[in-house]
């Protein structure tokens, strides 16, 4: 059975060691680095299943590391940062993180979030149907296995969570999903501050789909209920 490897990128040695201690108790293999450039190199040279990234790191910050990772990989990323305002969290999610944990933190909560992200990632890949290589609706074409989205012949770059939300909505057009439904299915976790998280991702997804340029919205808000695909 393949061991799961988790990248820990933090220039505070004590924090990295603490995370490693708790993750190794869960049976995970850890790879620690102390700056952003080392984090990118680690992902390129090792089989990494999940990354825990500090935002404020030497060489490259967590945002830039995430951008570079996302160019080639779709592994779950958790930001662990002392930047603790709501705006900081929203920015982190928009910039590509799958989850955001603030310092100081409870190590057991971080482990729980790691477990949830890995579980969600595994379930998503298992549920991808090999014979269903394309989903098409309303000028939108989705290739689930390649995690590629094309709208009117233009490639749309999405974060993993944005892709999964869109794929969920498109796969069941006209079905209305509440924010809680989306959070549970995409994040694979119980409802935890999910409404705002989903709203932020939907807003970013709509912007990338150019909905401000089109009269007909691809993602329709059903007020007081949730969201549905309107293609």
UniProtKB/TrEMBL annotation:
Domain Response regulatory residue range list: 5-118
Entry keyword annotation includes Transcription regulation: yes
Keyword field: DNA-binding, Phosphoprotein, Transcription, Transcription regulation, Two-component regulatory system
Span of domain OmpR/PhoB-type: 132-231
Location of the DNA-binding region in this protein: 132-231
Any one cellular-component term (Gene Ontology): cytosol
Pfam families: Response_reg, Trans_reg_C
Entry keyword annotation includes Metal-binding: no
Modified residues (4-aspartylphosphate): 54
BP term (GO), one: regulation of DNA-templated transcription
Listed InterPro entries: CheY-like_superfamily, OmpR/PhoB-type_DNA-bd, Sig_transdc_resp-reg_receiver, WalR-like, WH-like_DNA-bd_sf
Compartments it resides in: Cytoplasm
Name of the protein in question: Response regulator
Organism per entry: Paenibacillus silvestris
């Amino acid at each position: 059975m393949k061991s799961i490897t988790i990248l820990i990128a933090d220039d505070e040695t004590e924090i990295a060691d603490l995370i490693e201690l708790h993750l190794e108790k869960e049976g995970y293999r850890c790879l620690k680095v102390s700056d952003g450039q080392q984090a990118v190199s680690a992902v390129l040279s090792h089989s990494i299943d999940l990354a825990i990234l500090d935002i404020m790191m030497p060489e490259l910050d967590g945002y830039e590391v995430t951008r570079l990772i996302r160019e080639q990989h779709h592994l779950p990323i958790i930001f662990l940062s002392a930047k603790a305002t709501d705006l900081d969290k929203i920015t982190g999610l928009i910039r590509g993180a799958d989850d955001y944990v603030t310092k100081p933190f409870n190590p057991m909560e971080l482990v729980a979030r790691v477990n949830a992200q890995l579980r969600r990632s595994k379930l998503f890949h298992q549920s991808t149907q090999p014979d269903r290589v394309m989903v098409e609706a309303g000028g939108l074409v989705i290739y689930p296995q390649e995690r590629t989205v094309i709208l009117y012949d233009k490639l749309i770059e999405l974060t993993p969570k944005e892709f999964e939300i869109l794929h969920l909505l498109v796969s069941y057009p006209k079905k209305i999903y509440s924010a809680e439904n989306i959070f549970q299915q995409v994040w694979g976790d119980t409802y935890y501050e999910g409404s705002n998280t989903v709203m932020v991702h939907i807003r970013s997804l709509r912007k990338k789909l150019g909905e401000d340029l089109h009269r007909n919205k691809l993602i329709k808000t059903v007020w007081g209920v949730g969201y549905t695909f309107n293609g």
